[in-house]
Amino acid sequence: MHHIHLRDLEVSRIGLGAMGMSQGYTGAGTDEAESIRTVHRALELGVTFIDTAEIYGPYTNEELLGRALKGHRDQVVLATKFGLVSHGGDGPGTLDSSPANIRTAVEGSLQRLGTDHIDLYYQHRVDPNVPIEDMAAAVGELIAAGKVRAFGLSEAGPETIRRANAVTPVTAVQSEYSLFTRDPEARVLPTLRELGIGFVPFSPLGRGFLTGAIRSTDGFAEDDFRRDNPRFTGENFQHNLRLADEVKAVADEVGATPAQVAIAWLLAQGDDIAPIPGTKRVSRLEENTAADAVRLTPAQLDRLTSLPPAAGATHTEAQLKMLER
Ligand SMILES: NC(=O)c1ccc[n+]([C@@H]2O[C@H](COP(=O)([O-])OP(=O)(O)OC[C@H]3O[C@@H](n4cnc5c(N)ncnc54)[C@H](OP(=O)(O)O)[C@@H]3O)[C@@H](O)[C@H]2O)c1
Known about the structure:
- The two termini are 31 Å apart.
- The radius of gyration is 18 Å and the shape is globular.
- It has 11 helices and 11 strands.
- It has helices at residues 32-44, 60-68, 99-113, 132-144, 158-167, 188-195, 234-254, 258-267, 282-289, 298-305, 317-320; strands at 3-6, 9-12, 16-17, 49-51, 77-82, 85-86, 91-92, 118-123, 148-154, 170-176, 198-202.
- Helix 1 (32-44) packs parallel to helix 9, helix 2 packs across helix 3 and helix 7 (234-254) crosses helix 8 (258-267).
- Bound molecules: NADP nicotinamide-adenine-dinucleotide phosphate.
């Protein structure tokens, strides 16, 4: 497994997103033993970068990782996120990046993860009610206290990134990026490169779509995030199947799987990028991790880069309001 640097934080260039082990997608939370085997297999295969958040569950995903990483803590760069749980207010689902809330949140995450430090602590969504400088200073204090090693932002726009970075150096920005969602290319990636900040693409498999495994939404559970997602509904879904077919066509040419090609395309975008494909299954973890060895030719990269944009918004209208792009 190759490693890269997000600013000065060294990580395996393919990480593991743990969210789907506890929430969001069909089958989440149903097989803890397989989820823990998946984390352990990731470590065996050289994956050192694991991603969670206090809102996943809420809390249960961090707890799961705490159990899975017992005795393995030093092998991983552990990333988690605050700001979508208001501890003194309305609880999960409420934006709160006030310094007091961050100080409460970090203690809970440390305890659930069974660790005395978080390697990369992201603000999960920008909170319009808290000056970004105040939030960045609060994380800076946690770094000074040794509770946090590095500071990150998620779905933050260029201006926010600049302002936060001026107070506490930002190590990485995590936003949705894949052949399914190209938004960061226009403004965010150039800003990160100018400032020397790393980039972590989340949902690198287009929430499973790019793998070609989703040909119908009939099997989605009631609480599957994709049920009311514009990209997975109606005509948009039918249109987007063609995108998945194109990825499959390149994969057939390469002799790889579509998931591997989707990840390999991201890896080819720069050595400052570390995608975190999500899975709760050992077999898919093995498949996704093997993308480290997949090389795409310039012609294959061009073909993928020229694919038309996916139809439909990445989120519902309410969710979109929380994103800066
Ligand atoms: N910062 C944020 O706001 C934010 C938002 C969303 C996600 N994230 C992070 O990013 C991580 C990854 O994103 P994601 O999980 O949303 O999406 P993703 O990685 O694009 O796709 C995950 C989905 O694809 C399926 N899958 C994985 N590998 C597969 C393969 N080889 N073949 C077929 N299907 C496969 C998974 O199902 P199985 O689990 O059943 O394999 C799951 O349903 C998350 O775990 C989370 O840590 C962050």
